[in-house]
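pls design
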């Protein structure tokens, strides 16, 4: 595995691979890799000649009171894990390399951001879309892999790829969970021991909602109440949102039908966690 820290070298390497007719599978990450990321890498490995990942904690997608400074980082371990997955190239730029001057242009996401994390984290998706626009131009991927845990991010990136005509296939990959159901996340290490015990309730509440829908419930408000009550009764977390929308359009629903997402975000003492389920309702 080759570690590359400059944009110039990375672009040159990727162009060389493209000229040789190789397909490039790209997994952009912010590091502190876990099984969820490794699953993306494995899928990229199966479907492409070359696998490239990036590790970059992108400052412009964090709000002023968010966890940019304390976001977990462990480059040595990440390197070992990526090597274990036969990654060919690891792009690891500094903030100065990615943002050398005050930017003159940023990407503003117009749709699908006034709900869920977009509402709670103003500017977050502009930061994600801006860094991905740069990373796509640097890594020149054939396919790009993203986890469905960030389902709103996947919907926004689909818009980015299609509106800006990137010749890239987006590959959304299912959420990877701990045995007790908690969605894998780099941020889980910030849960206190008691909170870690409570955190599986997030997924449990979504499973209960799914069960209620399977039994015939079609009222989004009833589903939202069930999820909220379960989380409030069984955890000390503070609910940021529990919402139900069409997916990937993220439009409000009066009645549950078609492809829908039930998504939630909660704050524990030191960390905010998200989770969701996407369901097809006939
Ligand atoms: O999902 C993430 O880790 C980040 O939002 C991404 C896509 C790497 C952009 O910084």
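designed seq:
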């Amino acid at each position: 595995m080759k570690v590359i820290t400059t944009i110039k070298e990375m672009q040159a390497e990727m162009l060389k691979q493209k000229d040789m007719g190789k397909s490039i599978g790209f997994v952009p990450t912010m590091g502190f890799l876990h099984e969820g990321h490794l699953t993306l890498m494995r899928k990229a490995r199966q479907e492409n000649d070359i696998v490239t990942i990036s590790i970059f904690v992108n400052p412009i997608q964090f709000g002023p009171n968010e966890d940019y400074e304390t976001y977990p980082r462990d480059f040595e371990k990440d390197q070992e894990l990526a090597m274990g997955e036969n990654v060919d190239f690891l792009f690891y730029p500094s903030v100065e390399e990615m943002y050398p001057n005050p930017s003159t242009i940023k990407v503003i996401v117009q749709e699908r951001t006034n709900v869920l994390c977009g509402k709670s984290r103003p500017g977050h998706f502009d930061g994600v879309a801006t860094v991905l626009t740069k990373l796509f131009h640097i890594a020149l991927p054939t396919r790009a892999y993203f986890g469905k845990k960030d389902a709103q991010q996947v919907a926004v990136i689909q818009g980015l790829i299609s509106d800006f005509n990137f010749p890239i296939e987006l590959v959304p990959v299912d959420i990877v969970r701990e045995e007790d159901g908690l969605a894998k996340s780099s941020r889980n290490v910030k849960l206190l021991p008691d909170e870690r015990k409570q955190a599986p309730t997030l997924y449990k509440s979504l499973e209960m909602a799914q069960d209620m829908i399977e039994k015939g419930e079609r009222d989004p408000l009833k589903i939202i109440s069930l999820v909220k009550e379960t989380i409030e009764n069984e955890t000390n977390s503070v609910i940021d949102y529990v919402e139900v929308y069409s997916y990937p359009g993220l439009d409000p629903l009066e009645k549950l039908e078609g492809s829908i997402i039930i998504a939630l975000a909660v704050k524990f003492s030191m960390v905010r966690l998200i989770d969701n389920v996407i369901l097809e309702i006939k």
